[in-house]
Design brief:
This protein is an alpha/beta fold. It is 44% helix and 20% strand. A hairpin with a 3-residue loop joins β3 and β4. The longest helix has 34 residues. The protein binds zinc ion.
Length: 229
Amino acid sequence: MREELRWTGEIGRVVASRKDDKWFVSILVHTDDANTMVQMSLMDDLFPAVGVDVGINTLATCSDGTTYENPRPLKVHQRKLRRANKTLSRKEYLSNNWRKAKRRLASVHYRISCIREDSHHKASTSIVRKASRMGIETLNVSGLLKNRKLAKALSDSALSRFLTMLKYKAERRGIPITEAAMFFASSQTCSSCGSKKSELTLRERIYHCDECGFTCDRDVNAAINLCPT
Ligand SMILES: [Zn+2]
């Protein structure tokens, strides 16, 4: 085995699966850990409430200023992917070489999904470990997908999946999670005085409030707005 079992308890179901020529075994262990997790959340004072802003350039920005980078694996592996696709299209259908090329293509796809999943797991675990309560946004995915350039970057960063991951990890630890209303203007609103800008372009990385003079990183300002009170 690659790693030791992380939990002790009665072993239930064991499932073997295969992804891209690699074998995986998942082992279900019955433990009492769930109770310990809920007790942890009772120590509310130890950890602050955290607002999380998700994005394409920076995967997550927390209201305390911590950021988690977005590896955008599809962008990085685009050439490899294109080459593997091209090679496959040149091979005779169902020939041995075709099969080989198909495996190669699957392996590039697999690598991409591993990088993405790894970064999502690391960021979400790190965030839920330091929060007593969490606030996140509700993505208007269909609205964002209308912008074709943004659509590709959006599917590459799989932000909805990241938010789902944050939610289930928070739930598992007994951390209450607040989801902002879909059209809540977390980026446009000043986290200091509450006034709202009518326009804020994606290029403006620094939020500057004309009303109260508050100046702050754009994503941190959004994260503070998402922070549950
Ligand atoms: Zn202001």
